[in-house]
Amino acid sequence: MSLGTIYTKIAAGEATRTRALLPERLIKYFKINVKVSDPDEVFPAKFPMKLVPAFQFPDGTLLSESLPINLFLLQQVENHGGLLGDNSQKAWAQNLQWMEFINNDFMRPSGQVFGMIVGRKPFNQDVFNFFMNELRNVAVPVIEKHLDESEYLTGSAVSIADLYAATMFLRPLGYFMDEEWRSQLPRTMEWWEKVSKHPVFDNFFADLQMVDKFTPPN
């Protein structure tokens, strides 16, 4: 029996949204019995925020937000290859801690910057500078410092937190984390290169063209 239906796109025909990349990959790699669907005519009524991923259980129960959806999906896998660590409460808490950090402290400013670059959000120089400063001087240095002391986010092996974080670097690396910036992040880039090649992603990142030199909009 199917575990439910997941929506990974806002509109039919568009690319999978960044926060929905990992659940889509987990379902495919682990062959989890979940239907991946384009949004239908009742999607806005069920999920008024119109955000993905969004999940509907067979009994009609709705689940939104990427963190609980990713963790729920991985819990359905008997042999997840250590992606949840040793399944202890400590490992669970460590994974959740880093996923929360990436979702809030890294992805929030990244989304604002990316939105202004591609025109999804109106450009405002002060707002743009504020969020770029959050990334350059707060969020990214935290990641770099941690990875200078630990091979992966939660220890010595790839975890669900690493996979989640790797997907969130997709737009920054392609649009504004240019060569000069990346050169200041040797540990982060070494980590990303390893995690992005995890079999869950099935070479998804192989064609990613990282930006050479970023010129801010004005």
Order of strands, main sheet, comes to: 2-1-3-4
Mean pLDDT: 94
User: Which series of helices and strands comes N to C?
Assistant: EHEHEEHHHHHHH
Number of distinct helices = 9
Note poorly predicted spans.
none
CATH architect. name of the largest domain? Up-down Bundle
Q: Determine the CATH topology of the largest domain.
A: Glutathione S-transferase Yfyf (Class Pi), Chain A, domain 2
DSSP E strands, number: 4
Residues in helix, %: 40-55%
Task: Domain count, please report it.
Answer: 2
| Strand-pairing-aware structural class | alpha+beta
Separation, N- and C-terminal Cα atoms: 53 Å
| Overall form | globular
> What portion of the residues fall into strands of 2 or more residues?
5-15%
CATH class of the largest domain: Mainly Alpha
Main beta-sheet strand count, sense and barrel state: 4 strands, mixed
Q: Multimeric state of these chains? A: single chain
Describe the SSE topology:
Layout: E1 4-7, H1 21-30, E2 34-37, H2 43-46, E3 54-56, E4 62-64, H3 66-75, H4 89-118, H5 125-149, H6 160-168, H7 170-175, H8 179-182, H9 186-195
Parallel strand pairs: 1-2
Antiparallel strand pairs: 1-3, 3-4
Helix pairs in contact: 1-3, 4-5, 4-6, 5-9
GO cellular component, one term: cytoplasm
InterPro entries: EF-GSTs, Glutathione-S-Trfase_C-like, Glutathione-S-Trfase_C_sf, Glutathione_S-Trfase, GST_C, Thioredoxin-like_sf
GO molecular function, one term: translation elongation factor activity
